[in-house]
């Protein structure tokens, strides 16, 4: 695996790349991509970092696994490539945005436009085998992405962490709550949303209210 990551992140994360766990992880990923169909494409594994430079990061959204269907995953959590049907969680995200901030439901489910405004769309696991959810979990990715969250927490100030669902909420222990903001809610998946745990969380307007208070540019969701 070629660690082709935006230079602004590389300077902060280089120590992780040198650690034994990451070298084992890189070996595992390289082998998997040679022997299996895996997502996202190799060039997109670190896309979340490439589209959102370290110093521009204002918001962090944490997902679990990349989408494991053909042509879906593009390296950003909850995001799909242009012209790909929107998965159920993404549909619910867009529905909440429409009600919360009055933004019309978008044609494209590609969230690169968010990343370019300073939203780090970070999956805890950055790769997956086709049609096998969770197949690359517990191989070292979580250790790496936890280090990313800790780095943002220690090196930045006033970042807004949006933690959706039980898995993401557990990451709150990695964040210094004295200098960052954490908003939590249920997951946007139908299972959680249909139980009333997602809709109405107003995370998008609340995020912009916090950004406004800090004098930062608002996100156009």
TrEMBL record:
Keywords, sorted A to Z: Cytoplasm, DNA damage, DNA repair, Hydrolase
- Biological process annotations from GO: base-excision repair, AP site formation via deaminated base removal
Q: Any idea where the Uracil-DNA glycosylase-like domain is?
A: 50-211
Q: What is its EC number?
A: 3.2.2.27
Q: Which Pfam families match?
A: UDG
Name the GO cellular-component terms: cytoplasm
Residues the record marks as active site:
65 (proton acceptor)
**Molecular function GO terms recorded:** uracil DNA N-glycosylase activity
Protein family per UniProt? Belongs to the uracil-DNA glycosylase (UDG) superfamily. UNG family.
Describe the task this protein carries out. Excises uracil residues from the DNA which can arise as a result of misincorporation of dUMP residues by DNA polymerase or due to deamination of cytosine.
This chain's protein is named Uracil-DNA glycosylase
Q: Which organism is it from?
A: Flagellimonas aquimarina
């Amino acid at each position: 695996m070629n660690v082709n990551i935006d230079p602004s992140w590389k300077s902060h994360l280089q120590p992780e790349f040198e650690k034994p766990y990451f070298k084992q992880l890189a070996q595992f990923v390289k082998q998997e991509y040679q022997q299996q169909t895996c997502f996202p494409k190799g060039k997109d594994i670190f896309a979340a970092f490439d589209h959102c430079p370290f110093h521009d990061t204002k918001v962090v959204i944490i997902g679990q696994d990349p989408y494991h269907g053909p042509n879906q995953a593009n390296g950003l959590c909850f995001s799909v490539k242009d012209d790909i049907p929107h998965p159920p969680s993404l549909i619910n995200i867009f529905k909440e945005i429409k009600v919360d901030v009055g933004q019309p439901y978008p044609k494209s489910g590609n969230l690169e436009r968010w990343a370019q405004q300073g939203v780090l769309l970070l999956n805890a696991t950055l790769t997956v085998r086709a049609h096998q959810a969770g197949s690359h979990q517990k191989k070292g990715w979580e250790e790496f992405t936890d280090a990313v969250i800790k780095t943002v927490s220690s090196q930045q100030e006033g970042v807004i962490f949006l933690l959706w669902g039980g898995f993401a909420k557990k990451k709150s222990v990695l964040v210094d709550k004295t200098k960052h903001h954490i908003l939590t809610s249920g997951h946007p998946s139908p299972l959680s949303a249909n139980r009333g745990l997602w809709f109405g969380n107003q995370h998008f307007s609340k995020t912009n209210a916090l950004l406004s208070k800090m004098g930062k540019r608002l996100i156009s969701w």
